[in-house]
Structure prediction request, 511 residues.
Amino acid sequence: MIDEAISKLAAYALRTGLIEESEVPWAVNQILDVLKMDSYTDPGRDWGEINLTSVLETLLESAAARGLLEEDTVTHRDLWDTELMGRLTPRPAQVCRSFWERYRISPEEATDWYYQFSQDTHYIRRDRIKKDLKWVTSTPYGPLDITINLSKPEKDPRAIAAAKAAPQSGYPKCQLCRENEGYAGRVDHPARQNHRIIPLTIDGTDWFFQYSPYVYYNEHCIVFSGSHTPMRIDRSTFQKQLDFVRQFPHYFVGSNADLPIVGGSILSHDHFQGGRYSFAMEKAPIEREVRFPGFDRVEGGIVRWPMSVLRLRCADGEQLVDLADAILTAWRGYTDEAAFLFAETGGEPHNTITPIARMRDGKFELDLVLRNNLTTEEYPLGVYHPHPELHHIKKENIGLIEVMGLAVLPARLKGELARLARAMVTGEALCGDLEKHADWAESLKKRHTFTEENAMEILQEEVGLVFARVLEDAGVYKCTPEGRTAFLRFVRYAAEHLGETPERRNWEVKR
Prediction:
C-alpha cells in the first residue's frame, strides 16, 4: 500500500510537470526521505487517474502511525504534507523562467499556467476549496455572490495550545513577506515549501505576485510589496494599480483600505488583491454622471451600489491618477456633520478609500469606494460597519472582497443554517448557538411558509438579502434622496478643491 502511494505521487509529479522523466528515481527518494524510509519496491504499474488528496492521505496515515507527526492534528498534517510536496516543487528560478517565457506569448498564458501550477503543487488545496458553499442572491443592487468559506481549516485546540507554548518567532514578519517562499512553517505559521512567487516591477518598485491559497473567487491573486511596510492608500497606490492592470489587462486589482475596521486583516504589509472575476459592483451601472473641471477626458459617475462609489474612466492613466489623488486628498480632510461624517475625532483620522482598478474597453477604470471608520457608544465596532442586528450573519470587517459584492461568511453558518432550517420546519425552540438567529427567524416566518423541501433555499436567499443590508450599513452615503444629496455635496467639495485655477472651480454635475 505505501509503495503504491509513493509510486503514485511520483507519477503525479511527472504528469503535472513538477518533475521530468529523468527525475522520477530522485523524486521517489525525496518522498522516502520525508517518510523516513530506506527501502522501496516499485509496483511497476502504469497508474490511471491519480487522486492527489487520496494519495497524500495514505502517506499521512503512515506517517502518523509511525510517529512522524508531533501531534495528529490538521495543523501538523498540513506541515508534514507541505514538506512532502515541497520536495517535488521546482526551484523558484525555474518557476520564474517558466512564467516569463509564457508571458512573452501573452499575460493570460502566463497566469493560466501559474494558477494551474499553484494547484498542482497542493499550495492551493483543491479538495478544501470544493467544500466551500456558494450561491447567488438577487438583490436591488444586482446578483450578489454568497460564500461560506470552509477551505481555511479550523484550528485544533491542541494546535492552539502548542502555538501558545512555542517560542515566538519574528520570521517571516508576516504571512505576506517574500521570505515565506519555501519556509517550513510552525504550529503558528503555515508551511510554504510548495509555494512559489513571481517577482514584478510595478511603478518602478519591487513587488511580488502569488495566488491566495484560499481562492475566494476565480484566480484570486495577491500582489505584495517586496518590503514589509504598512498599508497606505496614496497617489502611488493608484499608480501601482494602473501599472499592474496595464501588465495584466485581464485581471482587476484592488486594495483594502488602510485604516482599522474598514481595512483588511493584514494592515502591516502593503498589498493588493486581484484576479480574473467580474464582481457585481463592476457590473453595476452609473446612476449619475459627474464631471471634474480640468479633467475633461475623465468620465466619472456615482455607481448604483449600496456602498459609496465614484467610478472614473480614462485612457490617460496619468490624468486618472491625478484626479484620484485629488479626490483622495479631499476625502481625507472632509467633514459633513449633517451626514454624520467626520474626518477625524480626537486626532484619529477616519476617512480613507478602497480603490479598485481594471481595464474596460481599452481604458483604465478606477472605482473609489469612500470609507469611514468612526465609532460611537451606540456602534462601538463602527458606524459604517454591519450593525448589531446583522451580526448573527456577518460581524467581521467589510474588506475589499465584500465591498465588491462577494460575501465571505464564517464557517459556523454551515451547521447553524442546517439546524435552523430543520427548526423552521419542526417549530422547535432555538437554543444555544441558534438563539442569536431568533429575531431573524421570527421575521422570516411572517414572510414564508417553511417545508423540508424549501427551508434551506429560503434561508440562503434571506442570508443574501442580509448581506445586501450589511453593504448598506457599510456605505457612508445611503441610497436615499438624503444620502445622494450628501454624496453630491462631497463631489462639489472635491471639485472645488482640485486646484486654484478658475476653470477648476467651475465643477459640474450632469443631470
Remarks:
- The longest strand covers residues 351-360.
- Residues 354 and 497 are 21 Å apart (CA to CA).
- The chain is about 40% helix and 15% strand.
- The radius of gyration is 25 Å.
